[in-house]
Every structure is written in C-alpha cells, then in structure tokens.
Amino acid sequence: MRRFRVGYLSHLPHQAFLDTAAQCAALEVVRIPLDQPEGAVLAALREVDGYYCMASRDELPRPFHVTPALLAELPRLLMVGSTGAGYDTVDPAACTAAGVLLVNQAGGNAEGVAEHAVGMMLALLKRMPEAQAAMRAGQAQSREALMGRELRGRTVGLVGIGHVGTRVAEIVRLAFGCPVLACDPYLDADAIAARGARKVEMDELLAGSDVVSLHLPLAPESRGMMSAASFARMRRGAIFVTTARGHIHDEPALAEALASGHIAAAGLDVWAQEPPPPTHPLLQMGNVIVTQHTAGVTQESRANITRIAALAFADAAEGRLPPRIINPDVVPRFAERWAAAFGRALAG
C-alpha cells in the first residue's frame, strides 16, 4: 500500500513532529535539504503528497512559497500544512484552485503568544525598557522620572479574539480585573461575551482602550489596518502591542505616534521584514519592546504545534479529513484527488 509522503524543507520546529508521525504507519516523512540547487528541491517536492511549509515569510526562500507558480510544478501535491497558526507563505485561493487542502495549527501556540502579549503590557506600563536602557547607559534618573502604571483595572482592547485573544482576555480579566473590549467581525456579541469580552466596533475599541493588542491573521482586509488614522484614534497615553503579523500595523505611522507622545509605548513581536534592519527607527526608541517573532517560540508551543501538524497529515494519510482546514471549499475536489491517488474513497 502506498504511503502518504510528507516533505519538509531544511528543518523542523520541533522533534515532536517526527515522533508523532512515526506512530502512523500510513505516513512517510522526508527531509528536503535547502543547501542544494533549486531544481533539486523542486524535484523532491514533486514526489510528495503533503508539504509541511514554513510559516515565516523571510525564513522560507520565495521560490518555495505556495503560489500558483509553485503549485503548477507540483501536480501530485494534495495537502499543505503550515508550521504555525499563520500561513503567510501560502496562497489559500491558489490551493483551492489546484485542489490542494490547506491546514494550519491554530491554537497550538496560544498560551505562549498570550503570555508574551501580557508580559509586554506589564513591562511597558511599568516602563521597564526605559529604566533598563537608562541604567545600562549610566544615565541614572530619579525613580519618579520613570514612574509607571499598573495594569489592574485598565481597559484592554483586543483586535481579534480567537485562540490567543481569548486566552489574553482570560489572563487580564481574572488576574488584573481588566474590562476587555473586542473587535472581531466573525463573532457575534454572545460569542465574544462567552470569551470574556464585550463586542465593539473598531473606533470604539481604539478610543476606549488603555491597551490595544492585535490578535488576528494577516489577510487582505487586515493589511494596513492600524494606520496613522488608527493610531490617532487611540486614547492618548495608550499602549500598543502586537503579536499578530507584520504589515497589519503601519510601522512608520507607529513610530510617528510614539515620537509625538500620543502613544506611550509599544511592544512589537512582528515586523514587515523579519528581522528588521538594525537601523529601523522603532529599534532606536526607548519606549518600545522588540522581539523577533518569538512569542510562540517556546518548548511547549513548538511541541504542540508540530504534534498537531503531524496528526493532521496522519488523518490525510489514513483517509480522513483533518481539522483546521483553511479552505473548506476545496474539500470535494480534494476528496476526488485523494481517491484517485490512493484507490479508495475518503472516510465519511
């Protein structure tokens, strides 16, 4: 019986992927080195049924992003799984057109990302980055000059309240007594209330929050969402945090809002270019915490997302539809292509 072959490029986020995949006899995993000619990589990808694709735009070489051009080269491909909750390196519409199923690992790193976001909120309100920079530079200041604020009781606005946003809402509400506002067009007021927040529109969230934190995917409708006008609508002295994706917030506009004092501080884990160049204006600001898209890079989160991914490929290998399908419209075509490849129908 032919096994379902999954290929990954260069390296895996965690050993748990291989450990979990090894438990499925119908699954075969192959490593495709990147230190070889592009043609050799493509030749290896042509022999796989599943592509375990890096989710970080700037880590994966552009020729191996899942685009219409790449899919045209891979007629055997049945399924793509991203290595995280995001899938910036994959074109979902192109996958659907090609009959290729796309899954992500949404929720697998929710705890790591949520803790990172709340940690940034606390550090920014207490002005830890400014105090650290002053001390390291030998520029001692009076403690009053670095007076901070407490998170307790402050209004936290969440743009997006999926897996990560829900956990952030839980932490700030239960640990700090924070009222939580949420803007999410895909959920009604009752669903958002069940997740610990009050549903509002974007303008109300920006104007009414002491902390604004982004927890939504990069998509055509979210690209550039946090513009100069958005930052201007935020409450003066508010904190901005994002562990979502680069390109959702306008980096130059944020730098201007911080320089003017309208926004008090920012915590940034995601960037338009990752990592950003050392000369990036936001890296020069003492009231900004910067991390290199590491919010979900914990031992626990990496083990969890890779286990989830391996289980999704195992489902496909054994003739079942996996969870977390990004492009559900493709399912009938995927089922036909799977049946043609493996000589039997998918399980009902």
From TrEMBL:
- Which Gene Ontology molecular-function terms are recorded? NAD binding; oxidoreductase activity, acting on the CH-OH group of donors, NAD or NADP as acceptor
Species of origin = Belnapia rosea
What is the name of the protein in this document?
D-3-phosphoglycerate dehydrogenase
Q: Which CDD domains match?
A: PGDH_4
Name the family.
Answer: Belongs to the D-isomer specific 2-hydroxyacid dehydrogenase family.
Query: Per the database entry, which stretches of residues form a coiled coil?
Result: none
Q: Name one Pfam family in it.
A: 2-Hacid_dh
Q: What are the alphabetically sorted keywords of the record?
A: NAD, Oxidoreductase
Residue ranges constituting the D-isomer specific 2-hydroxyacid dehydrogenase catalytic domain according to the UniProt record: 27-327
Ranges for domain D-isomer specific 2-hydroxyacid dehydrogenase NAD-binding = 118-295
Q: Where is the signal peptide?
A: none
